[in-house]
Amino acid sequence: MSLVSGPGKAAGCPSNQELCTQKHVEYIKNLDSRRDELEYWLTEHLRLNGVYWGLTALHLLGYPDALPRQETIDFVLSCQRDNGGFGAAPGHDAHMLYTVSAVQLLVTLDAVDELDKRGLGGREKIGSFIAGLQDKESGAFQGDEWGEKDTRFLYGAFNALSLLGLLDMVDVSKAVEYIKACENLDGGYGIRPGTETHAGQVFTCVGALAIAGRLDLVNKDRLGGWLSERQVENGGLNGRPEKLPDACYSWWVGASLAMIDRLHWIDSRKLTAFILQCQDSDAGGIGDRPGSMVDVFHTCFGVAGLSLLKFDGLQEVDPVYCMPKNITMRCLAP
Amino acid sequence: MAEHGIPRYARKGARTEEARQQELRKIEIYRELEQSVRERIALHQYTPETLQKISELLSSNPEYYTIWNYRRQVLRSEFARAESNGSNEAAAEQVAALIKSDLLFLIPLLKSFPKCYWIWNYRVWLLDEAKRLLPASIASRFWQEELGLVSTMLNLDSRNFHGWGYRRFVIETLREFKSAEQTDEDMTKAEFDYAKKMIGANLSNFSAWHYRTKLIQRLLNERSASDEERRKMLDDELELIHRALCDPFDQSLWFYHQNLMCVFDPTVAAHTMAPNLSDSDRLEYLRQEIEEIEDMLDGAEDCKYLYQALIDCTLLAWKVEGITPGDAQKRAVLSWLAELKKLDPLRQRRWLDFEQSLAC
To answer: Which pLDDT belongs to residue B141?
Structure first.
């Protein structure tokens, strides 16, 4: 799977309001055949995320079998390191960001048992890699051994561990306290305590609270107000006040609103139209804005945004996990 | 993380055979370089040549996080070598020189890729190494110089949240280094002035307003400010925001206004600059606020934020008073709400939800 942007085309955006499903499926399926493009190699550090974005988009588009299952599983397992964590590609260092994608992929492919058969030490080994990244004092998580702390990693830890049924390996209540410390007066959350509210960080903090069963801690009306103000005149959503809209915020903002039951506070018709305008209707894929280069990241979050808005013909997405709802239901069933 | 704001260009499939061959050649060079770095690391060749290769690779691909980790390994090994040779003083000098040259290597990368998490992370790690390995007098100089870099970065993009987060981080560390004559309060005051300058340059800079909110609280706590002093600060802030709101269409200003109004909310006042106002004071402030905003309506009748603020202040006053509003009291709110519904069709259903909650 490549993260190569493009091919992209200067030709304008689709004037109609159709989702170019077939084109997107072909675009994603062909990403791995672009090894003659430099960018294929320059984006290797995102490969495992890219497979997750591609596979998730395909599932939501109704083409769950478009990527070869066994090859995909083999690739995921080939990214695991001795410490139990996963790197972006074989030989890349383990990091929370890729470990979460690996777990999400194995769950989506219904292949978690492969970990016990062929992985290094089964699911518990992954659990202990993640648990080892929690700071016992503050409850926060770092991304890898080098120490960067960010609420993205806390969410990632909760996401992966809950999918593996191992959430009790970490101190959930300490982590929840840390999220509380990241809350601002506008009801939103920052990357660390004291920092400005950012829609991406709102998603990670609200998602982590949803997994912990602590959405009662969210000031839903205040935060819902801030999130709904992310919608700008052209229907798209931005990540902070006075910034440009971007198709991926359809997901970070939309999913956060959905988790606090306020998704109807924005104009879904106009947001749908904005996402559709970001499509490349000739070559497939979705970009950040109309006329921008497409890539698999924006393709995934654009399609997931449309799924949140119940776009006709798409599979339902789980706003907490950004995975197909039927799969998380199956995985998390008691 | 991915492509942002890059315009689509002509279909790549249309590239000529010559262009394709050129790209293949570039791929070959890149992969050879990568291979050579990996081999050297696998053999633990932590040498200046390896560092040079790593620099080349990172310059062509600063997102390649594993290579940043390799760079840390090489640097750690060089630090250890420096420390095992010669006196403490000579060792410190060598370590400082290594750190200095590595910090310099990062500058052009940060300027070209200001949103790349891995570069910022690496820089923080490097400065932490300075703190770990060098005498405080030398380490603190490195940290002090970071303020200049952050200012440059924030001048290039005044909303870069990496830049703001980094600034906060640098200041926290400088507090640990501060000299005997410097107080925490001096440092907070200097930051407060910085945020003020940034707001002055662009009133819409919410990042700077946010920083201001945090700094005011800190400043008052460090001064052990009396309730009287806190009230004075609140009055000054209200005056400032009222003046700024001569452009009432600026969303950033209204979020700052919303932050200020939290002072009058008994349930969150404890986390604000003036936690101990009496309820009657709060009501008096809110009454004045409503009056002030009503005046702003003159000539800006189509500004939705004004109606929203009027509603928020009124609801807050009901909360402070602990009253269930009667029909007469609701009438004003309903009239503002009618304007909001007209002016803010995107959030129509938010306002309908609110209307319904009023009816209960």
So the answer is: 94
Cross-chain Cβ contact A266/B60 below 8 Å: no
**ipTM of this predicted structure:** 0.93
Contact assessment for residue A206 and residue A172, using Cβ atoms and an 8 Å cutoff: no
Chain A residues inside the 8 Å CB shell of B40: none
Average pLDDT over residues A116-120: 84
- B213 within a domain of the structure (yes/no): yes
Distance from CA of B266 to the nearest CA of A (A): 13
Among B6, B31, B259, beta carbon nearest to A5: B6
pLDDT of residue B14: 67
Q: Is A186 on the interface with B (CB under 8 A)?
A: yes
Q: Which residues pair with A324 in a beta bridge?
A: A317
The 10s digit of each residue's pLDDT in B31-77 is 999 999 999 999 999 999 999 999 999 999 999 999 999 999 999 99
Instruction: Judge contact between A183 and A149, C-beta under 8 A.
Output: no
CA separation for the pair B1, B122 (Å, rounded): 17
Which chain A residues are Cβ-neighbours of B125 within 8 angstroms? Answer: 146-147
How many angstroms separate the CA of residue B235 from the nearest CA in chain A? 19
- Looking at the domain assignment, is residue B94 inside a domain? no
Q: Looking at beta carbons, which residues of chain B come within 8 Å of A246?
A: 4
Distance from CA of B15 to the nearest CA of A (A): 11
User: Which residue shows structure tokens 């603020």?
Assistant: B309
Does the distance separating the beta carbons of A294 and B30 come in below 8 Å?
no
Are residues B236 and B261 both part of a single domain? yes
Point out the residues of chain B with pLDDT beneath 70: 1-14
User: Do both B244 and B279 map to the same domain?
Assistant: yes
**Scanning every residue of chain B, which has its alpha carbon at the shortest distance from the alpha carbon of A229?**
B347
Walk me through the domains of chain A, giving residue ranges and CATH numbers: 9-332 (1.50.10.20)
B255 with B200, same domain?
no
Average pLDDT over residues A135-142: 97
How far from A53 is each of A4, A28, A248, A295, B185, CA to CA, in Å? 13, 9, 12, 10, 47
Among A4, A27, A43, A195, most B C-beta atoms within 10 A, so best to mutate, is: A195
Same domain, B250 and B210: no
Q: How many domains does chain B have?
A: 2
pLDDT score for B181: 79
Predicted confidence (pLDDT) per residue in A3-61, tens digit: 555 444 434 444 568 999 999 999 999 999 989 999 999 999 999 999 999 999 999 99
Enclosing domain of residue B208: 183-224
* CB contact residues (below 8 A), chain B span 126-145, against chain A: 128
At A184-230, the pLDDT tens digits run: 999 999 999 999 999 999 999 999 999 999 999 999 999 999 999 99
For residue B125, what is the nearest residue in chain A, using CA coordinates?
A146
Pair B209, B264 in one domain: no
